[in-house]
Every structure is written in structure tokens, then in C-alpha cells.
Write a structure and sequence with these properties.
5-stranded antiparallel sheet; 26% strand; 346 residues; single chain; Immunoglobulin-like; mainly beta; 2 helices; SH3 type barrels; 10% helix; 16 strands
Length: 346
């Protein structure tokens, strides 16, 4: 009789247990593949995940009201980045429609082109100073510009001339507008300048007639410490010596008349045309003296009187300064212009 061996039984279960577990796992897998509905319905611990369904949003519950004609854009999970700086040309949102921007390259229409004179000037018949003057242009006057020359240095304006226009120099006026917008006007060439006829040679005009019969000639002074002497000669315009006229000398407090010029009955030793006054004391000579030509009218036949005051003055009165001792001799010549032969001796 065989004896029961416990160790041997234990070994049999050790090897059989993995096989049983594997068979049980295969059976469960086959049962899931066949989709046994009875098992799913009766097993209270097994549930199915329901499929997602679309539930419409109730009316009036949307975040943004969208008009029926405008389709709603699909939602996106990408966030829109906010700008860190507003665009340079962004405009504020207003309830009023925005006016379209005016184009910047369209020039603004200018008013009529005109000028205003800023100084008195001549209005000429063409663009240059070689054109004749058609009239004056007083400062402050204004006029419309109707033309210009090629470089706009001269402007043609409305002016009451024969053709109704005149030309002004652009740098002397205030221009109201763009001068280059005026049309270029071609002006006829300026008139040729005619040379003046040669002047006829004319004889030099005679010098003005003297106001006095006698005028001063050459005057000079010389040194003499021992005498006070006034002297000179009288000539006509041709240089001929003149006789018969005297010279009156006076220092204001005392005066004397010279013997008539030239040789005479009382002074035959005088040279032709000579006159002189001497014998004045030295202490009375320095200072200012007055000299003039006179005609002696006292009774010369009865004798000559140097203190005679009966004479006619025939020249202007000239001043002379006598200085001791450098200018003690005064030489004063005179020129006779008419009636030179009607002195005392004639």
C-alpha cells in the first residue's frame, strides 16, 4: 500500500495554478469580444460612457448679438495678442461716419497774382532799365500781374499806358502769389539809343562883371623894424599902369589918403601907377588897418592935403593885419576895370 506523500501534492498544485490562471484570463477576453448584452444589462457594476450631444443655446443668452445675415465665426482657442502700442494712423472710434482724408498732394488754389509797390519807382515799357519810362509808380499802389520775363526778374502789370500794361522790377515790389505762375511775355527789343549830336564849340563865357571899379590884386608883406609903410601899384585889366587914383588907409582912429598914383605936379618923382603912405609912427602901426581905392576930390590945384576927407570910394574895403617887425611893409596892388583914365590928372 502506498503511503500519501504531502510534498508531492504540493508540487502538483504549484505547477497547475499558473495554468488555471491563464485559462481563466483567456475566457474573460473571449467574453468581452462577443459583446454579450445580457451580461452588460444584468451586471450592476458595468456602465457605458454616453456619446457627446449638441444642446442649442437658449434665445437671448448669447454674449455677442449677431445679426441674422452675418455668420458667426467659429470659436478659436488661439488668443489674439493685444498691441503694445497703438498704430500711428489709428483713429478714435466714434458714432459718426469718418470723413475721407483729403489728398495732401493736391495744391491749394491760389488767389489772383498781384504786386504792391514798396517804394516810389518808374514803370517802364519793357523788362529792363533800357526801356523808356511810361509813368510813375507811387509806393503803396497795387496792380494785377499779367506776365513776366523768362527769369521773373521783371513783372508785367496792369497800368494806364497806351497798351494798358507796364513793367516793374520784381526786387522792388511785394509779390502776392507765385510769380512763376504768370505767363512769359516776349517783349520787343528796347529802342536804340541815339548818340547826342556833337556839341558846338562855344567861346568861354566872360567872367562876371566886377561890382567895384577897383578890386584887390597881388598883396604881400615884408619885414622892416624901422619903418611903417603902405605902398603898391594900380593897373588896368591889360596890365597897363593907371595914374590919378589914391588909396585911403585907416586903423579906425586915424586915417590918411595917399597922393594920387603916378607922377604929378606935387610929387613928380613917383613912378607910373605907384602909390604910398609913410611917416606913420612905429608904435601906432601894429594892428588891423582898412584899405580902399578912392578918387581925391579936394582942390588938387591949390595943393595936396593927405587929411582931406572929400573923396569917393571906388572899391570894397579890405582888412590887413600889420605885425611888428615881420609884417611892417604892406604891398597892396589894385586892378582898374573901367574909367581907368579919369583920375585926378586927366
Amino acid at each position: 500500500m502506498l503511503k500519501h506523500n504531502p510534498i508531492q501534492k504540493t508540487s502538483i498544485w504549484v505547477f497547475a495554478l499558473p495554468i488555471l490562471l491563464a485559462v481563466s484570463s483567456i475566457a474573460c477576453s473571449l467574453s468581452g469580444l462577443t459583446g454579450d448584452e445580457t451580461t452588460a444589462d444584468t451586471d450592476p457594476f458595468i456602465t457605458r460612457t454616453p456619446l457627446p450631444t449638441f444642446t442649442p443655446t437658449a434665445e437671448g443668452a448669447a454674449f455677442v448679438q449677431v445679426t441674422p445675415d452675418t455668420p458667426t465665426p467659429p470659436p478659436t482657442n488661439t488668443p489674439t495678442p493685444e498691441p503694445t502700442q497703438p498704430p500711428a494712423e489709428s483713429q478714435p472710434v466714434t458714432d459718426e461716419p469718418q470723413q475721407p482724408a483729403q489728398p495732401t498732394d493736391t495744391p491749394t488754389p491760389e488767389g489772383p497774382l498781384s504786386i504792391t509797390l514798396v517804394t516810389d519807382m518808374n514803370v517802364r515799357g519793357g523788362p529792363g532799365t533800357n526801356y523808356p519810362v511810361v509813368g510813375p509808380g507811387p509806393a503803396g499802389e497795387s496792380s494785377a500781374v499779367v506776365g513776366r520775363n523768362s527769369d521773373s526778374s521783371w513783372l508785367q502789370v496792369e497800368y494806364p499806358s497806351d497798351d494798358g500794361t507796364g513793367w516793374v522790377y520784381a526786387e522792388l515790389v511785394q509779390i502776392n502769389g507765385n510769380p512763376d505762375s504768370a505767363p512769359v511775355v516776349q517783349s520787343p527789343p528796347p529802342p536804340a539809343v541815339q548818340a547826342p549830336p556833337p556839341a558846338e564849340e562855344q567861346a568861354p563865357a566872360p567872367p562876371p562883371a566886377p561890382s567895384y571899379q577897383f578890386t584887390p590884386g597881388a598883396w604881400h608883406a615884408s619885414e622892416n623894424a624901422g619903418i611903417c609903410h603902405f605902398k603898391g601899384r594900380i593897373k588896368d585889366e591889360g596890365g597897363n599902369l593907371v595914374n590919378g587914383y589914391s588909396v585911403y588907409v585907416s586903423n579906425g582912429s586915424w586915417g590918411t589918403v595917399s597922393h594920387p598914383s603916378g607922377p604929378g605936379g606935387w610929387y613928380p618923382d613917383k613912378g607910373p601907377g605907384e602909390w604910398d603912405v609913410s611917416g606913420i609912427q612905429l608904435n601906432q602901426c601894429p594892428g588891423w588897418w582898412k584899405l580902399s581905392v578912392v578918387k581925391y576930390e579936394c582942390n588938387y590945384a591949390a595943393g595936396f592935403d593927405a587929411q582931406c576927407k572929400d573923396f569917393a570910394t571906388l572899391s570894397e574895403v579890405k582888412d590887413v593885419h600889420v605885425v611888428y617887425p615881420d609884417e611892417m611893409v604892406i604891398n597892396a596892388d589894385w586892378v582898374c576895370h573901367w574909367d581907368c583914365n579919369k583920375g585926378v590928372y586927366q
